[in-house]
Amino acid sequence: MSIELGHFALILAFAIAVVSAVGGLALWRRGPRLAQVLGQAAILQFVLVALAFLALVQAFVVSDFSLKLAVDNSHSLKPLIFKISGVWGNHEGSLLLWILILVLFGALVAAFGRRLPADLLNLVLGTQSLLTAAFAGFALFTSNPFARLPSAPFEGTDLNPILQDVGLAIHPPLLYAGYVGFSICFSFAIAALISGRIDQAWARWVRPWTMLSWVFLTLGIAMGSYWAYYELGWGGWWFWDPVENASFMPWLAGTALLHSALVMEKRNALKIWTVFLSIITFSLSLLGTFLVRSGILTSVHTFASDPTRGLVILSILAVLIGGAFALFALRAGALRQGGLFAPVSREGALILNNLFLATAVGAILVGTLYPLLLDALTGTTISVGAPFFNLTFGALMAPLLLVLPFGPLLAWKRADLLAAAQRLVGAAALTLFLTILISALGGVSISMAPIGLLLGFWVSFGSVAEVIERSRLGRIPLRDSLRRLIGLPRSIWSTALGHLGLGLTVLGIVSVTAWESERVTTLNPGETTQLAGYSIAFDSFGTVAGPNYMAETGFFTVTAPDGGLANLEAERRIYAASGMPTTEAAIQTYGLSQLYLQLGEPIDDTHVVRIWHKPYILLIWIGALVMSGAGVLSLTDRRLRVGAPRPSARSLPEPAE
Amino acid sequence: MKHVLALLAVLLTMAMPALAVSPDEMLADPQLEQRARDISAGLRCLVCQNQSIDDSDADLARDLRVLVRERLVAGDSDAEVEQYLVDRYGEYVLLNPRFNQHTILLWIAAPVLFIIGALGLLLARRPSTKNGSLTDEERAVLAALEDKPPER
């Protein structure tokens, strides 16, 4: 019964979305009264889709095996959290989650957007409803999550064991919130193009949404990377897999958008480019979510989908993305540019940032799609793998990282490069000193290591240089310095922290790439092996029963160089329902470094054990957390005014040009 | 879903989640073994999802790893081993595509995009300076304004 209610709610939401889309896009000049109706419709869409989603969750929680989706992806013995996360561990359910987040963002715009000009709001909500209509329609007509089975089996076939992890509970919702959040930027861009009006108020509105989505996407990607790292079992954390690239491209484009929207908000320049980036970023998000489902990237798409489904989704993408770019081509000329500036200025630096980031997006897009296109056009099959992406992406990022610390130190309009350089002398000296010291002590295992270290330290120290200088640390009493630090504008803090996070991630990547050590050996209980100063003893081996799997567990004791002891358990599991084997690595954290231990297939009667020492690997994800924190900090800045702004003369939208 | 897909994809193609290089495959000579590892990291496991044979657990990957080591022991150079595999499996086996007529567009894509972007920026700047819409007087006023301390 609740399943039919959910199904009905989704149909109703689809119908309302269709009406809202037509109404908003065709009648947008009707002003505040239409805006009121559209706002209520947006909130109603959210309520209805939320009902549909809850109905699906309920069916999974009570193991209602008359629901086809639950049979295919659930099992009555599965722990509760995996029953819930199993809702989106498949094509139909994850599509519904995607739609839920889409209507949530629409409702948020409706709730917080009352101060927007009514025409703009009509267009934004209309576009947002168009997206909802397209994807709710896609779900209803080709991927219905509410399909019932005529005769219900007693037990489900279980979710893929590798997905039975908290990673699945957290990673997709975060990632989707990031992807879908960019739909707001997209809708605002379409609204600006249709109405032909765009001003600084527009940028002030778009930037918090971009920031929010970017924070979610950053966390989602970092979370996914850590999940792959501990679950896949060979200690890799980034594979340049097409699916990863698909999530990385919107992140890069979103990063560029954050910076260009800043220029537009502060200086009223780069308008056309910002609108263009808004469209690009969401288009890449759509590609990221759906290209992998279309069957085009056959190598990575695994949610079994029939050709019609792929064709439908491709048509939707083509119409939405193609339509947006056609509109852009027609209307971009109507948007007036403003804000002159010299090449050496904050604006100039941010444009340089955009040039590098946009090129990186283009390069990754070409690298990801090239093998497909080449195969389709000439029949030649080639592989484009990690070595290519490392080289291309690295070559683009190195100069960006090199100039990055200068950006925030330059003034708007026209800046003094020499003065900025002087303020970075301390950071440069410290960077050189540490790079030489570490390269000498750690040994240079790969030639790129010192360059990587140099860039990582430079970005880290360079980003905090301004904060430290402004606090006048060491020149005035410490107490006064701290007071100055606390009093600094949040925008300065968030810039410094965001860039510091990037520096930390770079340092983590360099460290683990250059100084990782590995030991592959056969080991029996009672034997001991050594790696990077750690002594690893294989204590015993036994069989342990889990809730829905059987595990062979190896028990290890690790003695750290400082004498500390740790007990590790590495498992090889067989899941009862699917008979599918998985491995669970044992990971022990020492400061920022980790020891990663994997129990392999037995050879004859001995066990194969693989151990990696990963120095400072946690910096990779800590850096991402710091970046996200910086984004959150920026959102709390009063000047960004996320949420309902308090009435004040300055927050009124500026008149259109 | 990205990693879910990656995880699934990787998993579905694994025969067993055994692990990559096994001790019984390794060569006694550490230098030769290191070369084998480096070469393996650049070779695609043909039945896997974007995995190198060094990372993969598939039976085919194991066969290829053993093959690489056999060639090295036989005295082949790194390039010869690579060519040996390309001759048998095609360029698809190389994770780092070679520079040739098929891949020229791939390799020049990034530099070309960058140059187009940079040129676009230069051209976009020109009208604002060459427009001639400003008189010399206006320029002087502007210059004076710009010399004032920047606003924060």
Structure, described:
The complex is a heterodimer of chains A (657) and B (152). Chain A has 657 residues and is of the alpha+beta class. Among the domains of chain A are: 1-164, no CATH class; 424-515, no CATH class; 517-614, no CATH class. In chain A, 61% of the residues lie in helices and 11% in strands. In chain A, a hairpin with a 5-residue loop joins β4 and β5. In chain A, α5 (91-112) runs antiparallel to α6 (118-142), α5 packs across α7 and α9 runs antiparallel to α12. Chain A is globular. The termini of chain A are far apart. Residues 298-304 and 642-657 of chain A have low confidence and may be disordered. Chain B has 152 residues and is mainly alpha-helical. In chain B, α2 crosses α3. Chain B is elongated. The two termini of chain B are 42 Å apart. Residues 4-18 and 128-132 of chain B have low confidence and may be disordered. The chains are: A alpha+beta (657), B mainly alpha (152). The interface between A and B is large, with 86 and 53 residues.
Descriptive labels:
heterodimer; A: 657 residues; alpha+beta; four-stranded antiparallel β-sheet; disordered C terminus; B: 152 residues; mainly alpha; Helicase, Ruva Protein, domain 3; elongated
